[in-house]
Design brief:
Layout: E1 11-16, E2 19-24, H1 30-37, E3 57-60, E4 63-66, E5 79-81, H2 88-101, H3 110-122, H4 129-135, H5 147-160, H6 178-189, H7 197-200, H8 207-210, E6 216-220, E7 226-229, H9 232-239, E8 264-267, E9 280-283, H10 307-318, E10 322-325, H11 328-334, E11 341-345, E12 351-356, H12 361-368, E13 372-377, H13 394-405, E14 411-412, E15 418-425, E16 431-438, H14 445-464, E17 494-499, H15 510-524
Parallel strand pairs: 1-5, 6-10, 12-13, 16-17
Antiparallel strand pairs: 1-2, 3-4, 3-5, 6-7, 8-11, 9-10, 11-12, 14-15, 15-16
């Protein structure tokens, strides 16, 4: 309770997970009450609070509702169920199904998805592909590529006895070494990662979930500092910031293709990594801050996050543990992007690429395209960029050379992993990606397949529909999570993955898949000069 909170403040009587609770009526959101007052961290805060990502989904009287934009006052006297409130049998079944298919990687998005699909199952609705696609329109997930969630739903169809045509045959639940699975996921994700049924239910150890009880909350304010409160809602109110919106202005391409009679040419724009777990870190006074990477690597986009330093400084100032959190708008404004580039290439591998000056980007491109001249351009106004983001620069270079040759061929990543990809359009009109990957001695094929499907979705999405509007002064104007252009489940290709045997040391394979899919998708539309190219 805040110091200025009157001890006789009005209370809200709620029914949560089958028990009656009373919480202070501060005008907070249902999500804020669940997390900060009741310690129920299964509902996640991914859009802060825009009501657009679905990560905070709970059940209210059996119906899915996003808790971040639901005032707690509105649900007084109604039955609220969070992921923690499902019966043990149902939670266990969903956890096992998602783990078996690789339908959860970091585990941030899946608790909300589970609750929405569980509501369908409880209502007697079939978990068939069209129904699940429609249900997933309320959600975003950056890791899984959606297909493995469909496969988990098909397992639950068998468990629940509901009927329906599923996209792929159910995946058999088999005994696995979760330690080996975690090792494979750590290689693929670029950060320490656990794999288990519990992780799929949101227990991945995220910083915002593991802060000590009673830790202050801190968020960036409108003056370049940090606003602090006893709860996240209180801190946000003190910050005095206006929530960002999606712009109506068109995006642009900041660099021009170098002059030349090229066999292929490419321009890319600003793209948001769009990880769902926004930056967070907590610290005790005099202690070491927790890592904002938590159970995954955020595709390389959190390596230089400021939240850890802020948590340490604020904890020392206040003499209490502090959890520092970025909003969705904060992560867009300060988070690094893929460096925009423009280039032209010839079929023999020669050409010129101009790219927003970024540490390490020339080396990344040179590792896969040694005959491309790389010219870094200073003074391009815009958000920060990083070469650490998944296959930044070199995936675009690989695609450019493939377009110049007129075929994808076998793509070799800087780490030696290889991949092929082919995009076809089925009679139904839905695209299908056929992928092959070779990346050493695989220790868990379920995890590798999941990461390859996720990488395929990310590449397809980036080439087809993702873009941020950045003005001439370098300010980002697309600040809502839906404005990034991430492809929805209903528009996502079916993905078939073949893992080729190899005796080499295990290396990341999904980045090679990402690059191969970029090339295959672009070539399917005959390589128009500018990305994004539009959906199929």
């Amino acid at each position: 309770m805040a110091d200025d909170q009157p001890p006789t403040a009005r209370q809200l009587a709620l029914q949560v997970n089958g028990r009656d609770v009373s919480v202070p009526d501060r005008g907070d959101s249902l999500l804020g009450v669940l997390r900060d007052e009741l310690g129920l961290t299964g509902a996640k805060d991914g859009c802060s609070p825009q009501g657009q990502c679905g990560c905070c989904t709970v059940l209210v009287d059996g119906k899915p509702r996003v808790a971040c934009v639901t005032p707690a006052r509105r649900v007084v006297g109604r039955e609220i169920v969070t992921i923690e409130g499902l019966t043990e049998d149902r939670r266990s079944a969903w956890g096992e199904a998602l783990c078996a298919t690789g339908g959860s990687q970091c585990g941030f998005c899946t608790p909300g998805i589970v609750l929405r699909l569980e509501a369908m199952a409880q209502a007697g609705e079939g978990l068939d592909t069209p129904a699940v696609d429609q249900a997933l329109l309320a959600h975003l997930c950056r890791c899984t590529g959606w297909q493995t969630i469909h496969e988990a739903a098909s397992i639950m169809t068998e468990v629940s006895g509901t009927e329906g045509l599923v996209r792929e045959s159910p995946v058999e639940i088999v005994t696995r070494d979760h330690g080996a699975a975690g090792a494979q996921a750590t290689i693929e994700g670029g950060g320490i990662q656990r794999v288990s049924p519990e992780v799929t239910l949101g227990l991945g150890g995220f910083a915002a979930d593991t802060a000590p009880a009673g830790a202050l909350r801190a968020v960036p304010d409108a003056e370049g500092g940090w606003a602090v409160g006893e709860t996240l809602d209180e801190a946000r109110k003190a910050a005095g910031k206006t929530q960002g919106r999606r712009t109506t202005a068109a995006h642009s391409w900041p660099l021009e293709v170098p002059e030349g009679d090229w066999d292929a040419a490419l321009q890319t724009t600003w793209v948001e990594p769009a990880f769902l777990e926004t930056d967070a870190s907590w610290c005790e006074p005099g202690g070491q801050p927790s890592s904002p990477l938590a159970n995954g690597g955020a595709f390389g986009a959190k390596q230089e996050s400021p939240v850890a330093g802020a948590a340490r400084q604020l904890a020392d100032e206040h003499g209490r543990a502090v959890l520092a959190l970025a909003s969705r708008e904060d992560t867009v404004r300060w988070g690094p992007k893929r460096p925009p580039l423009a280039g032209g290439a010839m079929a023999d591998g020669t050409g010129v690429v101009v790219v927003r000056a970024t540490d390490g980007i020339a080396e990344a491109i040179g590792a896969v395209a040694p005959d491309l001249e790389v010219r870094e351009v200073e003074g391009i106004a815009g958000p920060p960029t990083s070469s650490l983001i998944r296959a930044a620069g070199w995936a675009e270079a690989v695609a450019l050379l493939a377009a110049a040759r007129g075929e994808v061929g076998e793509i070799t990543a800087p780490n030696g992993a290889t991949a092929t990809a082919d995009l076809t359009i089925e009679e139904s009109g839905r695209p299908r990606l056929e992928i092959s990957v070779r990346c050493g001695q695989v220790v868990d094929e379920v995890v590798l397949r999941s990461y390859c499907i996720g990488a395929a979705h990310m590449a397809y999405s980036m080439v087809c529909s993702e873009a941020l509007t950045v003005d001439d002064a370098g300010e980002v104007h697309d600040l809502t999570i839906r404005s990034f252009g991430v492809v929805r489940a209903v528009d996502t290709p079916v993905v078939d993955v073949t893992v080729q045997p190899s005796d080499g040391a295990l290396v990341n394979g999904s980045d090679a898949v990402f690059a191969a899919v970029c090339a295959a998708v672009w070539l399917q539309k005959e390589a128009p000069r500018q990305w994004p190219i539009g959906l199929f």
